[in-house]
Design goal:
With 445 residues, the protein is mainly alpha-helical. Helices cover 78% and strands 2% of the residues. The chain crosses the membrane at residues 7-34, 54-76, 83-102, 108-129, 141-162, 168-186, 225-244, 293-310, 317-337, 343-361, 382-404, 410-431.
């Protein structure tokens, strides 16, 4: 990588890790809020604080995280990536500071909505910056994904450790500090946001510099993108999001019933003095739940997947990468339950492969978006992409919950295999279209 590439990748790695650190720390606070608050005071009426109530609160923040990616993508093309990444980091810091000061569930809701709005602009901004500014694009996507996985794996762990020593309000306030520091760094970072586009001569894009200026232009550019291969790419990322949320949302719950993951009394793992200091004496009921660490480890293995996937995007056609990744994910869904009941070693091996391939596919579809869209509306295209991944894809959790409530885990994993099979089929369609374009180009020459 050259100096400009390194400067861009350093910023996006930092910001991407932060986004997912905060995203995955929120559920840890939910269990505390269930005991901390009794009612939601709405003025004219009051609602009891239940899991359903807090579920709606958290869903509002996560929903905005996905939906806001589209307007975020439009803003990227108008004001630039570096500025938006800085605003994202400062906004996330402010949201967790507000969270730490929250006296009620209403204020918690406002804090999570602020987090969702701030975080939503990151993916279109960061990915557009890599696609237009980094010449070694695939490697840039790989490092970017690795940083996200580090945040996914270490964010919840860091939050849990801090909660051993401090009240949740102070922990939330402490978590606001890293994003504040990162935001300050973003305002000082120096690089050329369009170096890769300039090196390619602009790619012949009609809007290489300006983005969209009006609603009519937004509709026109959106129609232009979806009239081409991007329509299929959008369906691909939807399948990826549905599989991702569907398999991860309830995975810890599914693993709880496996004998391999019986809870371990925490007092048996700590020296007597430490256990007394932490208030976890024998018989206290506090246990270590192995399935949570399996879950975290599975996400951490995604670092390898991101790196491998990013490297492969520079070496094989991205369409074939999508086909292969979805084919493996479909197979893993089919064999998951039999392997999970076969013992610890097979389950660990399966978890490692699943964690890897959940994230191998991401650099492939990110690079595919860059190949199937014009550079001038790259932010808009990634806005649509993450609307599909986080917005539509979030329905994977609802699908999984509904199936587990009214049917069986076997039906859930067959459904997930179906999502992956559809994604593989769409990838094959893109392979065929790529071949058709290549033949047309050869004929024209």
């Amino acid at each position: 990588m050259n100096r400009n590439d390194r400067a861009i990748v350093a910023l996006v790695m930092l910001a991407h890790g932060m986004v997912h650190t905060y995203e995955l720390s929120i559920p840890i606070f939910v269990s505390i809020w269930l005991t901390e608050f009794d009612v939601v005071n709405l003025g004219l009426t009051q609602l009891e604080v239940t899991a359903a109530t807090l579920g709606l609160v958290v869903t509002a923040g996560y929903g905005l995280f996905g939906v806001g990616a589209l307007p975020g993508g439009i803003l990227v093309d108008r004001v630039g990536s570096r500025r938006l990444i800085g605003l994202c980091l400062f906004g996330m810091s402010a949201s967790f500071l507000l969270l730490g000061l929250a006296p009620s569930v209403v204020v918690i809701t406002l804090a999570l909505l602020l987090w969702g709005a701030a975080a939503s602009v990151y993916h279109p901004a960061g990915l557009a910056l890599i696609s237009k500014g980094v010449e070694e694009r695939g490697t840039g996507f790989a490092y970017h994904g690795i940083a996200g996985n580090v945040g996914i794996g270490l964010g919840p762990l860091l939050t849990a450790i801090l909660l051993l020593f401090f009240e949740w309000q102070l922990v939330a306030g402490l978590l606001a500090v890293p994003a504040l520091v990162a935001g300050a760094y973003a305002t000082r970072a120096q690089f050329d946001e369009t170096a890769a586009v300039a090196a390619d001569g602009g790619g012949g894009d009609s809007k290489a510099d300006s983005g969209v200026d009006s609603l009519a232009e937004f509709l026109g550019e959106s129609k232009r993108m979806f009239a081409g291969g991007f329509a299929v790419v959008f369906l691909v990322v939807m399948c990826s999001g549905l599989y991702y949320r569907g398999v991860l949302t309830f995975l810890p719950n599914l693993l709880e019933g496996i004998p391999t993951f019986e809870p371990i009394p925490l007092a048996t793992l700590l020296p007597a003095g430490v256990a007394d200091a932490l208030g976890v004496e024998a018989g206290s009921g506090r246990t270590l739940k192995p399935e949570r660490y399996f879950y975290s480890g599975l996400l951490m293995v995604g670092v390898v997947g991101q790196y491998v996937g990013g490297k492969l995007t520079d070496r094989i056609p991205v369409e074939w990468g999508i086909v292969g990744s979805f084919a493996v994910l479909a197979a893993l869904a089919v064999v998951f339950l039999p392997v999970a009941n076969a013992g610890l070693v097979p389950l660990l091996a399966l978890g490692a492969v699943l964690g890897c391939f959940l994230f191998v596919i991401q650099p492939f579809y990110q690079a595919t978006v860059a190949e199937y869209t014009p550079a001038g509306t790259r932010g808009l295209s990634y806005g649509f992409t993450y609307l599909g991944v986080f917005g539509v894809g979030a329905l994977g959790g609802a699908v999984a919950g509904t199936i587990l409530t009214y049917s069986t885990p076997a039906v859930l994993f067959l459904t997930l295999a179906g999502f992956a099979a559809v994604g593989a089929g769409l990838g094959l369609y893109l392979v065929r279209q790529r071949g058709t374009r290549a033949e047309a180009g050869a004929t024209a020459d």
